[in-house]
Specification:
Layout: H1 2-31, E1 36-41, E2 46-49, H2 51-57, H3 61-64, H4 75-91, E3 93-101, E4 107-119, E5 122-131, H5 132-135, H6 146-153, E6 159-165, E7 175-179, H7 183-187, H8 204-215, E8 222-231, E9 236-248, E10 254-263, H9 265-329, H10 335-358, H11 361-364, H12 368-378, H13 383-390, H14 394-407, H15 417-427
Antiparallel strand pairs: 1-2, 1-5, 3-4, 4-5, 6-7, 6-10, 8-9, 9-10
Helix pairs in contact: 9-10, 12-14, 13-14
Length: 428
């Protein structure tokens, strides 16, 4: 009898130790979740949660204990959340995006996912909520107690959670405690039970860095890396991100690492496409700037041509038409004939008036060649530079400068021609 009692005590002690070990694993996983963990009953009341819930939403433990979870949901999302929880109890799992209300009244977008479970004949929902404002591009990672986490891992699709143990804190002695079955699809491997297999499909350019990150766990409490993995099932390279956190012994030696992997291929592809679009936009912008510059040059040339034509028309009238009309009117014509001469002169002035208004009086007195010299002088060009640009001799430029000064009434005046021309342009 005593031997039986002793054996029973030993078995109870072993069961108690096993329970404590499982509880430590459960508590560690819950504490390491990136969002907050919750457990609610069928009435929606909070029964259990991690400290992240209190920290993120600003409520105390006393304010949350037994509180209806819908109290923290704004009115426009309550029905959505209510249907999601009903689905969770009915179908065994749920997922929903909605807002939580912080204690200060600010609405925060969250993604929630969980499963239903039964304990002592009562049904509960357990799950996690991820703050989408910070982790929108991160796959939802769910960690909870060992018992409920194992059931949740069976439904994992685009992510995989794992725990690795180490003997004497040595990364080379790593042994897999558990890993989601989805890691097979994620890494494209058949046997995920051996850690070496996790590295077999990693891109050669990434493998050394990932191995170094794994071996750095005793020194780094958190590792966050991305890698390219060739998945033979679809026959393509995929981008995988993994985050691993270290759990140390009291002595400081590495005991466990808890981690999550998820496929970020779509996010990388979107980022790459956005980068390509930005490069294309930069090229188009540069091309447009060049075209705009060329167009500006053409416009300026066209305006110069139009000005030259207008000056030519006005000069032709002043030199070749108007003098003869004036001479003709002084040849003893009859009064009727003189009237016709005056009508012709008046009509010609009306025709030429728009051209005359666009050209200053001093501009009309200059020849097209002199106009070109004036433009270059006004822009600060010296005689030698003007000669090179117009393909004439420096003496020809000096001749034009003298004629321009004479036509502007500057002969013998100590007035700087450049400054004077610039002042005329400002008055124009």
């Amino acid at each position: 009898m005593e031997r039986l009692l002793e054996q029973t005590r030993a078995e109870l002690h072993e069961a108690r130790e096993r329970f404590q070990s499982e509880k430590k694993i459960s508590d560690g996983i819950i504490a390491s979740l990136p969002g907050f963990y919750f457990m609610v009953d069928e009435a929606g009341r909070y029964l259990r949660w991690n400290e992240n819930l209190e920290t993120m939403l600003g409520y105390s433990h006393e304010e949350l204990q037994g509180r209806d979870s819908l109290d923290l949901v704004p009115g426009e999302d309550k029905e959505k959340v209510r249907k999601a929880t009903e689905k969770g109890f009915r179908d065994g799992s749920f997922r929903v995006e909605y807002h939580n209300i912080r204690k200060d009244g600010v609405k925060i977008p969250y993604f929630a996912q969980g499963v239903s479970t039964e304990i002592d004949g009562r049904r509960y929902l357990i799950g996690v909520e991820i703050d989408l404002t910070r982790l929108r591009d991160t796959e939802r990672a769910l960690r909870e107690s060992e018992e409920h986490l194992r059931s949740l891992m069976e439904t994992a699709v685009n992510f995989s959670v794992y725990r690795i143990s180490y003997r004497e804190g040595e990364p080379r002695s790593a042994e897999i405690v558990f890993v989601s079955p989805s890691i097979k699809r994620l890494l494209g491997i058949e046997n995920p039970g051996r850690l070496d297999n996790w590295f077999e499909n990693i891109h050669p350019e990434d493998k050394r860095r990932i191995l170094d990150a794994h071996f750095s766990l005793p020194r780094n409490p958190r590792v966050d890396e991305t890698m390219r993995v060739f998945n033979p099932l679809p026959g393509e390279w995929r981008w995988i991100q993994f985050i691993s956190t270290s759990v140390l012994e009291e002595s400081g030696l590495l005991k466990y690492s808890n981690g999550i992997m998820f496929d970020i291929t779509e996010r990388v592809e979107v980022t790459e496409k956005l980068k390509q679009k930005e490069e294309e936009l930069e090229k188009k912008t540069a091309k447009l700037a060049r075209l705009n510059t060329a167009l500006q040059v053409l416009v300026e040339q066209r305006e110069q041509e139009i000005n030259d034509i207008e000056r030519g028309v006005l000069n032709t009238f002043d030199r070749l038409i108007n003098p003869y009309l004036q001479d003709l009117s002084g040849t003893g014509l009859t009064e009727e004939q003189n009237t016709y001469i005056e009508i012709i002169q008046s009509n010609l002035r009306k025709i030429l008036s728009p051209l005359s208004k666009r050209l200053s009086d001093w501009q009309r007195r200059l020849t097209p060649a002199e106009i070109k010299v004036v433009d270059l002088i006004r822009n600060g060009k010296r005689t030698k530079e003007i000669a090179e640009l117009l393909h004439v001799s420096q003496n020809a430029v000096s001749f034009h400068r003298k004629r321009i000064r004479r036509k502007l009434g500057l002969t013998g005046e100590k007035i700087n021609l450049v400054g004077y021309l610039q002042s005329l342009e400002e008055k124009k």
